[in-house]
Amino acid sequence: MKVYDGSKDVLFAFNIWDFESAMAVMEAAKETTGKVILQTSMSTYKKLPHKEFRSFVTQFSDNQGIRAWLHLDHCTDVQMLKNAVDCGWDSVMLDYSDRNLKENIEVVKQITEYVQGSDCLIEAEIGRVQGVEDNVGSREGNIATEHAIDTFMEQTNVDLIAVAFGNAHGIYEGTPDLHYNLVEYTTERYGKPFVVHGGSGLSDDVLIKLMTIQNVKKINISTDLKLAYRQGILEAKEKDLIREKGFQTTAVEECIFRSVKETAKAKLMLTENL
Ligand SMILES: [Zn+2]
Prior knowledge:
The protein is α/β, with parallel strands linked by helices. It contains ten helices and ten strands. It is 45% helix and 18% strand. Helix 6 packs parallel to helix 7 (180-190). Zinc ion binds at residues 73-74, 129, 133, 169, 197, 220. Residues 73-74, 129, 133, 169, 197, 220 line the site of zinc ion.
């Protein structure tokens, strides 16, 4: 079943980087909402065995009794995007947001037909979310305008839409100045599922506020999980598990796994406030 088909749910989408992190996120979903999106960046996509990973996610989620979808995020490579569609990814994001609006629209239009000819959904971005995500992105953000939103939406037919509204990838410096009016403008006017990028580092209150806006359907979390991974390593070090004598890979991995899983769980549990 396609993600977002008639679903009223807001889904969290976590960037994973290997089988282990995918498992930690799916276990977090099992203990909370039972639904989650796993995202691969381009660099993660390159290193994973695609068909094997697809099968693994399907089988593991089925066995856990949960729903898990696979998404390719911020893809700037049309061939890779088509490959993900062919390998059974549930949704893909074409990121041509560094080009001008006209070029962004042209490429989105070209690729939409290919993606929608399968069971896969397509996401695109208007404006440019600031910050770098796995080497894709820019230091300078570019908040969308209502005019750009109208032009893009009138000329394309994407399934999911992301708009740069003051959100950022990575760690926020200070309190972000979010333009909620742009989220409302897009969702009310066009009724498409809306994607919030840069969910890491936004406070729980801000995330809940965004999730309660009608048609906000997907919240992306990447940096928080990376930091959870790092925290797991630090905990292992604190417990003296990194010592050379008697070093156990499983003991260290357990610290990382738990840290990633608990971080994902805390985010997923926010949907209980809706
Ligand atoms: Zn993003």
